[in-house]
Amino acid sequence: MEGWNQKGRMIIITERIAQFIKELKERSIERRIPLSASVYVTDERFPLKDTINLERRGIQPGTEWGRNWQSGYFLLEADIPDGFPCSDAVLSADIGGEVQIYDDEGNALFGLTDGSSFDCNYVKSEERIVVVPGHCRIYAEAAANNLFGLSRREMKFSRDIPEPEGRHIGIFCYADIAIIDRK
After folding, report:
1. Residues in CB range of 71: below 8 A, 6 or more apart
2. C-alpha span between 65 and 72 (Å, rounded)
3. DSSP labels for 33-83?
4. Which residue has the higher pLDDT, 130 or 48?
5. Is the pTM of this model over 0.90?
């Protein structure tokens, strides 16, 4: 715990803040529709327009999908019911890395991240999205790394570590279409 006080107070405060933010976000979501997910994982990067018809495998929340710098091409799907307040919808997702959301023609729409190598508390997991009642398909390219690189948390730098620049494991956590309670 180099750099922290002897009782680890800074670590405890950071963990409490992260837990408070998580609980606050969960309380602010009024309604959610879980998205089913499938992924194609590769060491290569493809133009987004060439990824629409890839053969993907289903993936469940909590499942590892990739390691350092691998790309995962996700398809997220759900049926949006009639009467759903579509104009207030957000995509709420933690896919386990840097994420680019794109449409079915390969046009980039927005990005999400599960963290930054400079600030372990920085997360962007929600963005407004246009949905309509019926079958919804969302494409996402994820990179198994954090914003600006790999995670160095809990790393001890020495010559015998096989990954001295850090490490990252892409884990699919969740993906939902959600309505945020703005009250």
Report:
1. 41, 42, 43, 44, 45, 46, 141, 142, 143, 144
2. 7
3. EEPEEEEEEESS---GGGSTT---EEE-TTEEEEETT-EEEEEEEEEEPTT
4. 48
5. no
